[in-house]
């Protein structure tokens, strides 16, 4: 596990290339140099923990084409809004395994649609542990209020309990930078403050508090963005977490697709000894602000060297890895190309004097 530069966090795997949250997407991310593979954890009707982002299956599976599941469509309240669709919590693990995953965005490669299935949390962990190098995991306790309302376990445990039980089963434990953590790196993430507090009583592994758009209130405590990013709240939550995971446009707002002056959130987080791991970095032009001239390397340069973040959630693990190897490589991997970049930077600095 490299510690000398910001973490490359494979957001749902290398999902810019391969459908999200699949074994193939995670294997591709590891191949491309991810430090951590990130996943969202939900629960099936029969209490199995799975890797899947949405509480509905509509966007990224073939469920709508499956006639045998036509009568499963429901409307439930999710994070203060009524949502209609085929919900994960209405399917057993066996049924979920029959579904095929597809690419979320139509402008991305569609050739892998229908080739892969939903995987379990345990299968995800095995992918990281079976890698030929140390690869961290970065699981999210996804929509815990919704899951705890609709899924019940026979032993009376909650979603968060089952989540931690799985981590402990595979040996994940230890505070940030401890010997155990270095062997099996882990960040636990959640948008729900009460879930973070609950799991803090069960496992000492580092946690990251996720922060949504300024218009979105927390799903469990109904707090505003301004409340949860205040200095008082950062001091409070800092007792339980090692970092924040904000949406990047809350750190540097945009107007007309141009960046506005950065907020002071990163500086204040660092003052509270909290890391900042923003989300999500994507290569496509529709996700790049005009300031970056359609160049994802320029975006990474800005966020790493100007804003000063400590990790980045990216859909394109390989792009971030190549950028970092060019600009701040492992000494053992230093290439002629990276040396040319350094020489060019030195010349530019000299000419600027």
TrEMBL record:
PROSITE patterns: GP_PDE. Belongs to the glycerophosphoryl diester phosphodiesterase family. Its EC number is 3.1.4.46. It catalyses: a sn-glycero-3-phosphodiester + H2O = an alcohol + sn-glycerol 3-phosphate + H(+). GO terms for molecular function: glycerophosphodiester phosphodiesterase activity. PANTHER family: GLYCEROPHOSPHODIESTER PHOSPHODIESTERASE (PTHR43620:SF42), GLYCEROPHOSPHORYL DIESTER PHOSPHODIESTERASE (PTHR43620). One of its GO terms (biological process) is glycerol metabolic process. This is glycerophosphodiester phosphodiesterase. Keywords: Glycerol metabolism, Glycoprotein, Hydrolase, Signal. It comes from Panicum miliaceum (Proso millet). The keyword Signal applies. InterPro entries: GP_PDE_dom, PLC-like_Pdiesterase_TIM-brl. Residues 6-324 form the GP-PDE domain. It comes from the Eukaryota.
């Amino acid at each position: 596990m490299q510690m000398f530069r910001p973490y490359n966090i494979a957001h749902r795997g290398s999902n810019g290339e391969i459908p999200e949250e699949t074994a193939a997407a995670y294997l591709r991310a590891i191949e491309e140099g991810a430090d951590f593979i990130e996943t969202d954890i939900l629960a099936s009707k029969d209490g199995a923990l799975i890797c899947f982002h949405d509480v509905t299956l509509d966007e990224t599976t073939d469920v709508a084409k499956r006639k045998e599941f036509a009568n499963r469509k429901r409307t439930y309240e999710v994070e203060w809004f009524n949502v209609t669709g085929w919900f994960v919590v209405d399917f057993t693990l066996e049924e979920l395994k029959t579904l095929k995953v597809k690419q979320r965005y139509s402008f991305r490669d569609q050739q892998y649609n229908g080739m892969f299935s939903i995987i379990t949390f345990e299968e995800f962990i095995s992918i990281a542990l079976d890698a030929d190098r140390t690869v961290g995991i970065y699981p999210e306790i996804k929509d815990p209020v919704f899951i705890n309302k609709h899924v019940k376990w026979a032993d009376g445990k909650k979603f968060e309990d089952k989540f931690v039980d799985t981590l402990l089963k595979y040996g994940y434990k230890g505070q940030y930078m401890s010997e155990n953590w270095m062997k099996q790196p882990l960040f636990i993430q959640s948008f729900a403050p009460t879930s973070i507090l609950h799991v803090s009583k069960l496992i000492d592994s580092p946690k990251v508090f996720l922060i949504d758009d300024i218009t979105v209130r927390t799903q469990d405590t109904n707090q505003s963005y301004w409340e949860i990013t205040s200095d008082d709240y950062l001091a409070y939550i800092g007792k339980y977490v090692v970092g924040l995971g904000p949406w990047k446009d809350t750190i540097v707002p945009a107007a007309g697709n141009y960046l506005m002056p950065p907020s002071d959130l990163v500086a204040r987080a660092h003052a509270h000894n909290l890391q900042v791991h923003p989300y999500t970095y994507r290569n496509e032009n529709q996700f790049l602000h005009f300031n970056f001239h359609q160049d994802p390397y320029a975006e990474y340069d800005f966020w790493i060297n100007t804003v000063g973040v400590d990790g980045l959630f990216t859909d394109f693990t390989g792009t971030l890895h190549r950028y970092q190897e060019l600009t701040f490589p492992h000494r053992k991997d230093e290439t002629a190309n990276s040396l040319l970049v350094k020489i060019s930077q030195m010349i530019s600095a000299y000419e600027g004097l």
